[in-house]
Amino acid sequence: MARLLFVVLALAVAVSPRVADASSERGPVVLELFTSQGCSACPPADKLLAKLARDNGIIALSFHVPYWDHMGWRDPFALPVSVQRQRGYARAMKERSVYTPQLVVQGSAHAVGHDRPAIERLIAAAPPSASITIALAARRPPTLRIEIPDLALPQGGAQLWVIAFARSEVRQVLDGENAGHTLHHTNVVRWAAPMAAIEAVPAQLTVSAAEADGADGIALVLQRPRQGAIIAAGQVALR
Questions:
Q1: Which residue(s) pair with 62 in the sheet?
Q2: If 137 and its partner were Cys, which of 131, 143, 196, 207 is the partner (CB 3.0–4.6 Å)?
Q3: What's the pTM?
């Protein structure tokens, strides 16, 4: 995994009015779909995620996993970090296995990725989160100014992830379970990594994420240790 370069410029000691407002409002709900072009059950989940992503209160991300690649079609978007993250959730939720399509809601619950009623129930019941404020300081390489509001941190702090994604991808599948189909994907993760351990808030950081160069957007996710529930999130468009 490439190493993310980041610089912590300051740790705020008082909440500015803008950050205070962010912490007093409900933050976005993060949806993480673990999917694969080699999985015949996944296209309906991909379509559902595209619909859910239209909600401004949702950050929707497609993590393509590589463990279907041996079935005749190699998913061009599959990343090792995708299955690492999925297995991290399995450990956190005490599940014995992983599957596709799996949709994880707010890092705290999961459902089959095309089961809309179950997913909507999980979204409605999702634990509250705060909003991370992100400003784009430079585009090449992407440099972010980040404000994490005052919120209740778990003992030991929380882990901040940076996730770069392409807004839309379309591919024709030539082999495997989806052979002959043209698949459409939304917010496809192209790179992801833990950025920093956050041990005190409110916090202000400046981050240079050269690995995200060429992506359409970046999402930031702050979650409890050992890949627990998400407690704050935000996203910014790069183009």
A1: 33, 188
A2: 143
A3: 0.90
Place of tokens 């459409």: 184
Mean pLDDT confidence for 75-81: 98
Give the tokens for residue 190. 């192209």
pLDDT at 13: 32
Distance CA 135, CA 238 (A): 10
Contact indicator for 146, 206 with CB cutoff of 8 Å: yes
Task: Report d(CA 218, CA 36) in Å as an integer.
Answer: 21
Asked if the model's pLDDT at residue 10 lies above 60, the reply is no
> What sign has the CA pseudo-torsion 112, 116, 117, 120?
positive
Cis peptide before 202 (omega within 30 of 0): yes
Give mean pLDDT, residues 119-134. Answer: 96
At which residue do the structure tokens 């490439």 appear? 2
**Residue 52 contacts residue 60 (beta carbons within 8 Å):** yes
Distance between CA atoms of 222 and 148, rounded to whole angstroms? 9
Higher pLDDT, 18 or 226: 226
C-alpha to C-alpha distance for 37 and 85, rounded to whole angstroms = 18
Residue 231 has pLDDT above 90, yes or no: yes
Give CA–CA dist 105/123, Å, rounded. Answer: 7
Beta strand 230-237 with 130-131 is parallel
CB contact set of 142 (below 8 Å; sequence gap of 6+): 136, 164, 208, 209, 210, 212, 213, 215, 218, 238
What's the mean pLDDT when you consider all of the chain? 90
Q: Using CB atoms within 10 A of its CB, is residue 57 exposed (0-12), middle (13-18) or buried (19+)? A: exposed
Q: How far apart, in whole angstroms, are the C-alpha atoms of residue 126 and residue 186?
A: 22
Cα separation, 75 vs 165, in Å, equals 16
